[in-house]
């Protein structure tokens, strides 16, 4: 389960959930300008990007040759609203983008699609819809723009935001369906839409503009992404043809081989229109994308893995030509760009670009990497020691384009740490306490990421625990991205066991390296990290205090409580009704009498991914067993907290909990 796209958009991931909010760190990071989504024009001459300032975001455009003359693109001359999702027309002359700047002095949550003319600077509103718009994309002939759309939406699509209160006939009333809509670029009138019988997650135009490929499943969309199929559908402008039904190109649940029963994402057509590339692998959250790169004929048939045995995790791919595909991968904490020959399924010599210990846009690769038709690429690069900046160029001549944050300095030192356990090579990150003195001993907080199919990368933002005088250890145990698909799948039917052993072994490696006070070690995590926290304190007394955020205490009851139960079957191998024992084996409640660790439990009351009853069940057990505990439930919050007051209050409670339960000996 994860969080990285609206906050950066990923469900059991701890990225946004652990945003620093203590006063000193908040003030430091508030001064950082954060470029986000990137769009390079097809001719490689012009770059568009978003820049976020607290709640608002703006779009900027500049010629690569004259980058100092950037233009602010905003409807109605106001930037006190949100603009995003920039995408260039095929002729590189018009920029489409979404914005809530729909009128003078008008600030609403409703976004529309706008068009900006590079030649004249004119901006016109293209759509006039009511609902949620995502992922606008030009047709290759420039005549249409398609986008994901939820008509009359009451919330963003997906399970991350706060769920609607239960009401009416559950599973039937009020189900919100995301479809692909397409409008004419001349008058904004609707040309076509996909059928409401399918909830669409991603789509891509065919090179001839006559088809779309999309990944979709039967509603409800929050639950069924894990069993989604790849479809292709003929789509022509209104009046040119009768409605065409979508055709299944690939169903992971019916194929044989390594892709069987796994998840697919990021469909991309080959330039000749005959094949579709995608990412396929074991994924715990929509938006937290990772796996191998697969290619399938648009007419169907067996897919081909073109990256077998790769030692990293690709998360985004694009065709370079009919013979090769380029992709971005997470490789043991590094971000790496590579090109592969489709026919030979091998890396093209001298094509690798290692960006080092860095991420692109905090991990949301699809929005952060742009490719032009002539080999120019652009991306947002950041890391523990580098604030986010725009980079662009060709593979052998990449250069930093912006200097938005030249004065920004990390608040503490972070370095990669690696260790061996049970034949596996494991990687993680160690952040030192602020003003570290090697002659002193310091307490340590272990932060476990969500997912589990995700990873903690080198991202700007600092560590609130370092600010408070702690080491922070962020391991990427088995089940994480970054070391190939076999490593990702190494936790199947084994939640809480092998991954916990990896974490404990990593703690040993940290203790052998730096001066950790072993009597003051704490554990925390959100989502899957919250589960790991609840489970770990039933297996070891090594931690003096723990904080479980949005966790899971009982996989059996969780199966019937959450809004996304389909994600569990690929990991547990069966439903809870067919094999309850495998679920009980990884449930903290099964071993709850072993707990001695003081544990703070935190959750949102409308969390659809990790419902509040899971936290209540764990807290209730600890309370009855006489273990120090506290449960805090925040109103109107989903899996990712949105209310700044709640985020601030939560962080203050976390800091206080560790300070009180891991005091320094006088």
From TrEMBL:
InterPro entries: 6-blade_b-propeller_TolB-like (IPR011042), AB_hydrolase_fold (IPR029058), Peptidase_S9_cat (IPR001375), WD40 (IPR011659). The keyword S-adenosyl-L-methionine does not apply. Keywords: Hydrolase, Protease, Serine protease, Signal. Residues 1-28 form the signal peptide. Residues 460-662 form the Peptidase S9 prolyl oligopeptidase catalytic domain. One of its GO terms (molecular function) is serine-type endopeptidase activity. One of its GO terms (biological process) is proteolysis. This is Peptidase, S9C (Acylaminoacyl-peptidase) family.
